[in-house]
User: What shape does this take?
Amino acid sequence: MNKMIVFLLFLSACTSFNEQKTEGIPSLIVPRAETAPVIDGKLDEPAWSGAAVIKGLHPSRGESYRDRIGKIPTTVRVLWDENFLYVSFECVDDDIYSSGKLKHDDDLYKEDVCEVFIDGKGDGRQFVEIQANPDGVNLDLMYVFTGDPEYTSELRMTSEFCDKNRWGFREWNMEGLRTAGSRISRDGKIVGWNVEMAIPAAAVVKRQGLKNFAPMEIRANFLRYSWPVDEKTGKRDLLHMNWFPVLKGCPHISQSSMGRLVLR
Assistant: This one.
């Protein structure tokens, strides 16, 4: 059966989500933007000064590289208006791994990238993933689950459930999505990079029968992948950073670990 047909059938007959209980799920009160930021990757618009702020991301579940990510801190800022959720990442790093060769919907996560996962209804049955790299190139995907998710003790969905009920649509494109990236330069040296995203409301809250954001709660997680060179091997090694920690490499099957964004 065509994957998009399966998706439409799902939307017409979805059931409730028995949410996996987790401790410490973060919550962020997100203010409404008085003026929309310009999506150019520069983060110099006054709008960002009033944004909700996440200072620092965490290692993946079971990982012990907190000291390493502490040297390359990440600041996430979030705003909204009726049409868009605005997200920016400020990534400190003097070793940016970005070939400049990747294109839309390529495997951006194989180089430095920032990622946002959003479940607009919060039931774990459908969510979107947006990635953007230092050049502003993006990857957008939609995930659909044709059953109530089943989890392991590590808060990722079981392999058996994924084999039967997980559908990913890379061919889907999020209409109206805008992303941009830039390098941060100080005293003539590159010391980091920025990403800005404008994520359209229509793609996030459709399952609520809405086209626009309003004061509401949605679920989300924010991630950054960095690929520094390992001093021992000389090879690049993935540092996976999260707002709420998920198992390394598993954010797309860990929707119960999404935090709460309270749009006010």
Observations:
- Residues 24-97+106-263 form a domain with the Immunoglobulin-like fold (CATH 2.60.40.1190).
- Residues 3-12 form the longest helix (10 residues).
